What does this fold into?
Amino acid sequence: MWGRDTGGSELADSVAAQRRLRETWGRRSRGRRGGLQEDWWSPAVDAVCTAAVRGSGLAEACGRLGQARARAGMPVGEALDDLAALCDALGRPQPPIELVTALAEGWVDGGRCREDCRDPLTGLTTAAYLRTRLTELYRGGGPGGPHGGALGHRFVVVALPAGLDPWRRTARLIVLGHELGRFFSRGETLALLSRSRLAVLAPAATNLQERLRRLEDDVCAEHGACVRSRALPSSCAEALALIDDPGRAPMSGE
It folds into this structure.
């Protein structure tokens, strides 16, 4: 027996509410991202709608959504736009930071090996890994002496402006981390130094300055971020200090 009829009515109302949310969310996501988006729906979408209507478990569902979007090959920026469309459909002015974090961590987790040294939010390597990489460079030899390998590299910092609210800072950090992977795909080390600073350890190739210029003009300017670079110093201790000092802002040509 079902008991009182209200139980069936409540279930029907819940299912109808989930369907309405899914349809509204889908329309607004298409409006933000454009295109037919035939692959927009996945079981994770229904899980998010169910959690939103029930009022519990939404962060966990957003983590599943992030994993699904990564496995489907959706860039992290588009996944965040999709989340913003969901919150718009729910009448929220912007996604809460816990949902942004859950989706971003799910996105990274959906597309990476679980045993690498990566920050779960951005997918970049950790500062600890960058320290190891720098130490290896200074240990190795190369043209110009025992530290020649290190002296042939530059240390690049991408810094977000101060004063951003947590949602905007996190969203921009995630997008910038993803974009760095497009500009530096030749074995450079990409790392997260803090929640407002990203770093690249790159060989001083002939076209590095041109890539940095395009990164600043095409990506960083949109997010209010600045790009600075310097040659690695002569000692490993000085190089490691660039990571440990969050106030350090290397300037081009140093």
Observations:
- The longest strand covers residues 153-159.
- Residues 5-33 form the longest helix (29 residues).
